[in-house]
UniProtKB/TrEMBL annotation:
<dbReference type="GO" id="GO:0007283">
    <property type="term" value="P:spermatogenesis"/>
</dbReference>
<dbReference type="GO" id="GO:0031047">
    <property type="term" value="P:regulatory ncRNA-mediated gene silencing"/>
</dbReference>
<keyword id="KW-0378">Hydrolase</keyword>
<dbReference type="InterPro" id="IPR011545">
    <property type="entry name" value="DEAD/DEAH_box_helicase_dom"/>
</dbReference>
<dbReference type="InterPro" id="IPR027417">
    <property type="entry name" value="P-loop_NTPase"/>
</dbReference>
<dbReference type="GO" id="GO:0005524">
    <property type="term" value="F:ATP binding"/>
</dbReference>
<dbReference type="GO" id="GO:0003724">
    <property type="term" value="F:RNA helicase activity"/>
</dbReference>
<dbReference type="Pfam" id="PF00567">
    <property type="entry name" value="TUDOR"/>
</dbReference>
<keyword id="KW-0547">Nucleotide-binding</keyword>
<keyword id="KW-0469">Meiosis</keyword>
<comment type="function">
    <text>Probable ATP-binding RNA helicase required during spermatogenesis to repress transposable elements and preventing their mobilization, which is essential for the germline integrity. Acts via the piRNA metabolic process, which mediates the repression of transposable elements during meiosis by forming complexes composed of piRNAs and Piwi proteins and governs the methylation and subsequent repression of transposons. Involved in the secondary piRNAs metabolic process.</text>
</comment>
<keyword id="KW-0217">Developmental protein</keyword>
<dbReference type="GO" id="GO:0016787">
    <property type="term" value="F:hydrolase activity"/>
</dbReference>
<dbReference type="GO" id="GO:0042078">
    <property type="term" value="P:germ-line stem cell division"/>
</dbReference>
<dbReference type="GO" id="GO:0051321">
    <property type="term" value="P:meiotic cell cycle"/>
</dbReference>
<dbReference type="InterPro" id="IPR002999">
    <property type="entry name" value="Tudor"/>
</dbReference>
<feature type="domain" description="CS">
    <location>
        <begin position="1173"/>
        <end position="1259"/>
    </location>
</feature>
Length: 1289
């Protein structure tokens, strides 16, 4: 008894079901899901989409169609065809879903035989021995009786459908097969009662029973297979019957042989890599041994056309090679379905131009019954003989499968998870996580890694940790191989990543996939510059795996090298980045590993180095030669394989009109040995031109393009029959590469520029027989002309690719013409100009430089139109001076968003108070009915209200309303997801004030180890330190909405002592953690950009902007004591840098200790940059008529002292340092009576008071460098009372 699921009911003689159950003979739903996924991948790809459209359409044809309802490609049978104005409309039956759908001819594809290996999912059933009845009335005899009928009554059909709808379980007993349907006894369970539907219909007079012999049409089956109807279910499993495998017609085989198509099939089946079993090329993956292609029908369909054109286009050949043109299940209406032929032209064909001969039609009709019979009883076993074509098609990602290049040591790939060398627990984990199976590269990298061999893997997906993690985890489960290691704490595996971000990602993946294994206790290791951090680092007990960066690992090795005596596996992730950015550190780690593994007690333990990357790097060759033992090299990127194979890259710059002459110059070179040269073109016409030009120069030249498909055999034969001493040249297009499968070329000339890196790699792979690494090559004298050569003709039309070409040539160590550098510089400049409207590069803003401007999508110059400082209210952002800020959102350690606080008028505080007052009234809290993108709304958060702007809205699947809204807090700079009903209508008066959030960037500090992202530890620390607190900052530049500050401090005022204390300096805090280093060039780079942009109107404005004066009327007001605290932090910065061991230039140290006299006014302002100065220490005391200033400087020269009515300015030089004291006095003096003299090598200034009496303080504003001299304090009570309270500085 079979349990079934009913899909569609037409009548009791035709209903469609799916057989349920878990018998090993049945195909599970997952198989059909994989089939649908593979078909979608195959038919959705652009390459295959143009190659698998059928030449003809006919009734009964098996095909693949696109179903709009299911959003999927489905197997189908064409039931009827209706012509319309611009296309044909076919009524198709989906054989896996039992649906009838109309399909346009443009959405019909040839059914590739590899997709037809699974039986149809929908099985056609009918009730066994149960026939319809009807009421027959005989008016002559005047009676009525129930008699058998030819079709089912509508009431019977309705009742049958209702029964199947009401049932909770449907079972069927298979009795016979008639035609294309199974005959069954059907049992349904309704309310726990099982009923036979056959009996029920008969009992209710909807049907009657007939004798089985009257309904039997299995004579052929009995004669050939001796299958009895009554015992069918026990001898033949029904799941193996409805196989859509078609009979190979004799005339097809004859046609295939007569036209040399058998050779074409064989030629296409050449693999890209010789010796690799089961890895088919692009076309061969879908080319079965039976190529059902009727050339006669194509030729007879258009005699006139065949006379004019002797060869069939490669486009049509590909259609026919990759699949059957048609399968003759049933002969009926036949049309041409070529997309280039309109419906009107197809209908206007003459009778003698029918696509199929009448004789052929008759022959097919006679064979139709046998075709159906053998289709049902196909004896081919399911999934026989290893990996099926379906599994190979599932690996086709985008039309063309990448060629395998195992360039060193043969590797047998693992094509499925079951055949992979992984532990059973890990296989289950991968399946539970819906891992699709080993990718093309993984199938070749996993086996050697699991065997403990040294491996180098270069692939386009080389940054994926799953290339090495699964087999590595499997090895760690084999505890026996590590028994000879010292019994101490230490890792078995170290994974070195180029940065903390990649290390963190790998660590997370490691945690996900190591849950099923024994406890590995993995550790994510990052160590800063502090020596104590490395000394005090302790590994968790039992830690077997460490994921880290090269700098962190080297710091730990320097102090705790004994921890790595147990190390067996060293993984270099993204190896090309490691070698380019941390070359010395990586080789130091390798030297340490090499030294440790030579110990005698480790002889039986594994010793493995795994290097994985995206690009080949010249240092990998040294790694293989010095540190690896017989490594396996797996490269699946052809262009990278060419670098490994040491292909000589040559570039010729020329004008487009001079390409032909440049080509002839290249060919004129006469090497010592015969050359097999490929010249790649972009079109048929260009191929013809190149061929003629080459032949005109007395050089034998073959040609191959899509219109010469049947010259393929001849071209290949001539290519292979190269006589010693003779040259051969072949001009061809890129689409001929898979068919020709040439790998022995010695020279490739790119006459036309390759359209993509994939095609460029495919061209270079045509020389793969001659690939040799540096270690395999002899001396330059021995090599001679054996080195394969790639010649690229670069013209003005290829300007967009010039940058990529230059980068590739640099990696190939090729000789690069100076003209190419100049040409590329012009291209980069033009690209930069196109980015004028983009945002400024975030790395340029944060650190003053971008790692690679050539590929960065952002702008790297200042645009005066976009970067003018924006206005917060009626004034623009301050471009210099001192400000107070509150950071509200911390993006990273040096990048914050917050508000500038104006001491006099805080517009945001006023707005916030008004908003809170307004929304206190619940009637004002109106929810927004329809949200608009970038609209401004109110948002209640806890007890406060904010202005927010809508950035994005996420729609619900079953509703038009958004489920969540991404908003930006325009006054704080942060973003967040909120529910739509939380947003409130905002009155217009609350929208008038511009957004108050400003971006702040702390200057002159950057991450350690060449990182471009701040370590999260630093960001978290700074976040908790500064968020929401008031800080004092000095502005050095403002552009757009960004303000650069140097420095930023938190100041605490000591009210009782009338002074202020710096709690911390943000830059110094970052440096003190050991995760940041000095970036002295940051501000200088910003100055350079600012000057190049020519934003200021004069040089004076530029000086004011980039070197701000100590006080400016346009800057927000800051108290003198706060400003003084800001200037004192320079000394703190220098001290911190010395502690962390960072390198600081002497001139930088000098500039950091400068004090710019914030409490005073500059003496003069000229066009030259203002002279920076030190403020001298000054002690003062007074008498009744004078004030005496003792300036604590010795060995001064060029000193000057100028007196004003309420001000005195002293300046002097001590060595190469300039000292300046500009002091505003709290009372007036008599200028003429003042003097400055040198006493004991120190200057002493005497100021005559205008009015006799005691001064309570010397200066109008307090200056920490000016203090009272208590050595001259007089103890007499009378004088103390006369002088008043204690004088202040």
């Amino acid at each position: 008894m079979l349990e079934v699921l009913v899909l569609k009911v037409e009548d009791p003689d035709c209903f469609w079901v799916v057989i349920k159950g878990y018998s090993p003979f049945l195909d599970h739903e997952v198989d059909y899901q994989k089939l649908n996924s593979a078909m979608n991948d195959f038919y959705n790809s652009r390459h295959q989409n143009t190659e698998v459209k059928p030449l003809i359409l006919e009734e009964g044809q098996v095909c693949v169609v696109y179903c709009q309802e299911l959003k999927s490609w489905c197997r189908a049978v064409i039931k009827s065809i209706v012509p319309s104005a611009d296309h044909y409309l076919a009524k198709c039956f989906l054989v896996d879903f039992a649906k009838y759908i109309p399909v346009k001819s443009k959405n019909i594809r040839v059914a590739v035989e590899s997709f037809m290996q699974l039986p149809y999912r929908a099985k056609k059933f009918r009730l066994h021995c149960t026939k319809p009845v009807t009421l027959h009335i005989d008016f002559c005899e005047d009676n009525a009786e129930i008699v058998p009928a030819k079709q089912w009554d509508s009431a019977a059909v309705q009742y049958f459908q209702n029964v199947l709808k009401a049932t909770t379980q449907v079972q069927a007993k298979l009795c016979a097969v008639e035609g294309d349907a199974f005959e069954v006894y059907l049992y349904v369970t309704i309310k726990n009662v099982k009923v036979c539907v056959n009996d029920d219909l008969v009992a209710k007079n909807f049907a009657c029973y007939v004798s089985p012999t009257k309904n039997e049409h299995l004579a052929v089956e009995k004669a050939r297979f001796s299958i009895k109807s009554e015992s069918f279910s026990s001898k033949l499993n029904p799941a193996l019957t409805l196989w859509p495998m078609l009979l190979q017609r004799k005339d097809f085989q004859e046609t295939k042989n007569s036209h040399g198509f058998n050779f074409l099939a064989q030629s296409v089946q050449h693999t890209w890599c010789k010796g690799v079993v089961g890895d088919l090329g692009p076309a061969a993956a879908v080319l079965d041994k039976d190529v059902k292609w009727n050339m006669d029908s194509v030729r007879d369909s258009s005699k006139k056309k065949s006379e004019q054109q002797q060869c069939v286009s490669l486009k049509d050949v590909n259609k026919c090679v990759e699949s059957s043109v048609y399968w003759p299940i049933k002969r009926g209406i036949t049309i041409y379905a070529d997309p280039d032929v309109s419906a009107a032209s197809a209908l206007s064909q003459k009778p003698n131009e029918k696509p199929l001969r009448l004789a052929e039609k008759k022959e097919c009709d006679e064979k139709n019954s046998c075709v159906k019979l053998l289709q049902f009883l196909n004896p081919d076993p399911l999934r026989a003989g290893g990996i099926s074509d379906l599994q190979q098609l599932q690996k086709l990602k985008s039309g063309m499968q990448q060629p395998v290049m195992v360039l060193r040591n043969k590797i047998e790939p693992c094509l499925t998870i079951d055949s992979s060398p992984l532990s059973e627990d890990l296989k289950k984990t991968l399946q539970r996580k819906k891992f699709p199976g080993p990718s093309h590269t993984e199938s070749y990298s996993w086996p050697p890694i699991a065997r403990g061999c040294d491996v180098v893997v270069i692939s386009h997906c080389g940054n994926d940790p799953l290339l090495y993690l699964p087999p590595l985890l499997t090895m760690l489960q084999m505890g026996g191989c590590y028994k000879s290691l010292p019994s101490r704490n230490g890792p078995l595996v170290i994974i070195v990543c180029p940065g903390w971000k990649k290390a963190q990602l790998t660590f997370e993946l490691l945690g996900d996939y190591s849950m099923t294994s024994r406890p590995l206790h993995p550790m994510f290791l990052t160590i800063g510059l502090h020596k104590d951090e490395a000394k005090n680092m302790k590994l968790p007990r039992g830690c077997d795996v460490i994921v880290t960066t090269p700098h962190s690992l080297l710091r730990l090795l320097a102090y705790q090298s004994l921890l790595f005596l147990r190390l067996c596996h060293l993984v270099l992730d993204e190896v090309e980045i490691l070698f380019s950015e941390a070359n010395e550190q990586v080789f130091a780690i390798l030297d340490n590993f090499k030294k440790n593994v030579k110990m005698e007690e480790r002889e039986s333990a594994p010793r493995q180095i795994i290097a994985v990357g995206v690009h080949w790097n010249r240092h990998i060759e040294h790694l293989m030669r010095e540190f690896m033992s017989d490594p396996y090299v797996v490269i699946t990127a052809p262009e990278e394989a060419a670098l490994y194979g040491n292909v000589q890259q040559v570039v010729h710059l020329c004008l487009e009109c001079e390409k032909t002459s440049t080509l002839l110059q290249v060919l004129d070179f006469i090497p010592s040995r015969a050359q097999k040269t490929l010249i790649f073109t972009c079109s048929v016409a260009e191929t013809e031109i190149v061929s003629k030009v080459v032949e005109s120069n007395s050089i034998f030249c073959l040609k191959m393009h899509k219109e010469m498909a049947f010259d393929l055999k001849s071209v290949l034969e001539q290519w292979k029959k190269l006589n010693s001493g003779s040259d051969i040249v072949l001009a061809l297009t890129d689409d001929c590469i898979p068919l020709l499968a040439i790998t022995d070329a010695t020279r490739v000339i790119h006459f036309s520029f390759p359209s993509s890196p994939k095609f460029f790699g495919g061209r270079l792979y045509c020389m793969s027989d001659h690939f040799e690494s540096l270690t395999e090559q002899g001396s330059p004298a021995e090599q001679g002309d054996k080195k394969p050569k790639s010649v690229l003709l670069l013209t003005e039309k290829n300007a967009g690719q010039a940058v990529g070409v230059l980068r590739y040539l640099e990696r190939a160590d090729a000789k690069i013409p100076l003209e190419l550098y100049e040409f590329t510089a012009g291209v980069l400049e033009a690209k930069e100009d196109k980015k004028a409207r983009r945002s400024l590069c975030p790395y340029l803003k944060a650190f003053g430089f971008c790692k690679d401007k050539r590929i960065c999508p952002d702008r790297h110059h200042i645009n005066p139109e976009m970067d003018m400082p924006r206005k917060l209210s009626n004034q623009a952002l301050p471009a210099f001076g001192y400000i107070k800020i509150i950071p509200c959102y911390i993006s990273n350690a040096t990048n914050y968003f917050g508000r500038i606080i104006d001491k006099h008028v805080d517009l945001y505080a006023t707005l916030n108070a008004e908003m809170n007052e307004y929304f206190k009234d619940s009637s004002h809290k109106t929810t927004v009915e329809k949200l608009k993108k970038f609209g401004l709304y109110g948002l209640e958060e806890k007890t406060s209200f904010h202005r927010v702007q809508v950035l994005e809205m996420t729609q619900k699947e079953d509703s038009w309303a958004p489920s969540s809204v991404l908003v930006k807090f325009i006054d704080e700079g942060r973003t967040g997801l909120v529910a739509p009903d939380q947003l409130l209508d905002l009155p217009e008066n609350f929208s008038a004030l511009p957004p108050q959030a400003v971006e702040f960037i702390v200057c002159r500090v950057k991450p350690t180890d060449g990182e471009m992202e701040w370590n999260p530890k630093v960001t978290r620390y700074i976040h908790h330190k500064i968020v929401g607190k008031l800080h004092d900052a000095k502005v050095v530049l403002a552009l757009g909405n960004t303000v650069w500050i140097d420095s930023m401090v938190h100041v605490t005022k000591l009210v009782n002592l009338r002074t202020s204390v710096v709690d911390y300096n943000v830059r110094a805090e970052i440096l003190s953690m050991g995760m940041g280093i000095d970036n002295s060039e940051h501000v200088e780079e910003l100055k350079k950009l600012y000057k190049e942009a020519k934003m200021p109107t004069s040089e004076e404005d530029l000086n004011q902007t980039l070197t701000p004066p100590s006080a400016s009327p346009s800057s927000p007001s800051v108290s003198a004591e706060d400003t003084t605290c800001l200037l004192e932090v320079h000394q703190e910065d220098c001290g911190t840098e010395r502690e962390t061991g960072s390198e600081t230039k002497s001139e930088n140290s000098t500039s950091e200790t400068l004090s710019e006299n914030p409490g005073d006014i500059p003496i003069s302002r000229t066009s030259q940059p203002p002279l920076k100065s030190f403020h001298p220490q000054i002690k003062w005391f007074q008498k009744d008529d004078v004030v005496v200033l003792k300036i604590r400087l010795r060995s001064i020269k060029d000193y000057k002292c100028k007196y004003y009515q309420d001000r005195v300015v002293f300046s002097a030089w001590v060595g190469d340092k300039f000292y300046l004291a500009d002091m505003e006095l709290q009372a007036n003096i008599i200028k003429e009576d003042c003097k400055c003299i040198i006493i004991n090598d120190e200057p002493v200034v005497t100021l005559a008071k205008e009015k006799r009496g005691s001064w309570c303080r010397l200066l109008q504003q307090k200056n920490p460098n000016v203090t009272f001299d208590f050595d001259h304090w007089e103890e007499r009570d009378e004088e103390r009372q006369r002088e008043g309270p204690l004088p202040e500085g």
